[in-house]
Design brief:
The chain is an alpha+beta fold and 170 residues long. The chain has one domain (2-168). Helix content is 31%, strand content 28%. It is built from four helices and five strands. It has helices spanning 2-19, 36-45, 57-73, 162-168; strands at residues 93-103, 118-127, 130-141, 144-154, 158-161. Strands 1-2-3-4-5 form a five-stranded antiparallel beta sheet.
């Protein structure tokens, strides 16, 4: 028994440095979660699998709840009757401009801290000559940048918030 305890202790000491290493989250999605602006640019430059967009658990769960609701009701179409990336059903994007704004974290004294864990990436463009602006709200999590919400502005649809459309419908 003493040999077993000794062998176990030696083994535990040998692997403890390995166990003490920090866990590294590896993004498995098609998009790198390192740069929100790059991800947004890719949305407008190529056919993108939206299921591969890195999203916060909150936004991802809203999409899953929407899917489950549709399946339970037997509805063939979802309540999002438009492509939220282009603010329409079809797209002919021109005059695309993308800007990124870093949003500082504030401490209790309301002073800016040197950490930037939130970004707003704004895509402004014309879709079939209709001026449109889509704001993507990003937060940095342990595994990288995640999309947390989207707000769209346009002549045809007015103003909408993706999370509210998913949670409450049109």
């Amino acid at each position: 028994m003493i040999r077993f305890v000794f062998a176990f202790s030696v083994t535990l000491l040998a692997v403890s440095p390995v166990l003490a290493q920090p866990v590294k989250d590896v993004p498995t999605a098609k998009h790198s979660a390192d740069d929100p602006e790059t991800i947004v640019r890719s949305l407008y430059s190529e056919a993108v699998d939206r299921d591969a967009l890195p999203m916060t658990q909150r936004l991802e769960s809203l999409f899953l709840m929407e899917r489950d609701y549709l399946e339970a009701k037997g509805y063939p179409f979802d309540r999002l009757d438009f492509d939220w990336i282009v603010n329409g059903q079809d797209a002919l994007i021109t005059e695309l401009a993308i800007e990124t704004m870093e949003v500082p974290i504030r401490d209790y004294g309301d002073e800016a801290v040197d950490q930037f864990d939130r970004k707003i990436v704004t895509a402004s463009f014309k879709n079939f000559d209709s001026p449109t602006m889509i704001r993507y709200y990003w937060v940095r999590e342990r595994s990288g940048w995640k999309l947390d919400d989207v707000i769209g502005y346009g002549e045809d649809r007015g103003i909408w918030t993706l999370s509210l459309l998913l949670a409450y419908g049109d």
